[in-house]
Amino acid sequence: MSNQNARLLAHLKGIQSSPVGYTALHCHVSTMPVSLRTRDNISQAIGILNELKRTATMSQVFLLSNFEVVFVGYDILPGALRSAGSKIHKLFGYAEPRGKTPYGTGDFYSVMDLATHGKRLMEFAESVAGPEDGQDAAATGSKIIDGKLLAVIKNRIKATDLSSIMLNQPIYAVDTAGKMAPLFHELYVSIRGLEDAFCPGISLTGSRWLFNDLTEDLDAAVLRRLSAMPELGRKRFSLNLNISALTTPVFRDFDAALNPQQRANIIIEIHRNDLVANFALYKKLAPVLTAKGYCLCVDALEASLLPHLDLKGMHFHFAKVFWSDDAPQLASQLRGRVDEKGEATVSNYILARCDKPEAVKLAQSVGIGLLQGKLIDHMARNHIPAVA
Predict the structure, then answer these.
(1) Residue 172 β-bridge partners
(2) Could you tell me the pTM of the whole model?
(3) Which residue range(s) make up the domain with 177?
(4) How many Å apart are CA 249 and CA 77, to the nearest integer?
(5) For 20, left (φ over 0), alpha (ψ -120 to 50), or beta?
(6) What would the pLDDT profile of 73-83 be if each residue is shown by its tens digit?
(7) Does 343 fall in a domain?
């Protein structure tokens, strides 16, 4: 899954030694009113910058998880960046920013010459990227993957059967008495198993940027493995796939080998960051996929993103929300899903990462009947009803 926060930081570090000629446009979309931060406005903003990208050498567009948008280009006039920033601001009705930007101004966008003001953008990128790549690896005594090793692993994955490190975790349907039964199973590759098999002592996630690149090859490997399974489609399961993977020859071959009933038993999970970053492509693919019989699920939602979600309009059958300790906000937003006329009901929502009893209580309080997590697995194995 493409982690735009980490990729921005990695990109800035890559040009840090020779920043002359690089400029950046930072649009502070997170300061706009929530009602204006719609997927259409954000998608159009990305479209404006993609048009600019076609005229700029070595340029990149980043949509961050907090909705901030950053364009970094080489040999491009500041006036062109200001013009793009103004066009994007127009999409948001020229609304006044709410609060200060990360640079202490009240402007909707910031234009920076990275040779003179690159430190400001670098500090911002570090703050949104979280811990530096390698900190988790250092904590476990592991070394960090590099580009050379990544190339070796990518080649080995193409010729390897990954079934021994493919795991699954059920999504349980809970009835009114608290009795749980698996609705479907989420299939995924064990990263620890992948490390042990291909690079013992090396952390694949130590460099998030390189790991994101590896996920494209993992998608293809998983699809090839599933295609070779004679029992494919007999039971219902979900797969986490990049949107780009759905356009590859590997997926086309996978799809061609399925009958309608098999497709109906497959749920394709799309990570929220991938959805926002590749929304135009998703809009083209989603109607085709659902017409073929696949179910779609938007993955890794948080409370702050729920107001922007229209399950029916976006062809999603399910929405997976991650449990967090910010329960009051999450409960409020989920109750709002029940009250809105025309909106898919809360029964389409999955509460995942349920590792605490409070998660079960929250699910019951808002009517969610689909649960996933370590605690839920433990309760199901020991026949403990999911009741508060």
Answers:
(1) 182, 371
(2) 0.65
(3) 142-381
(4) 40
(5) beta
(6) 988 888 999 99
(7) yes
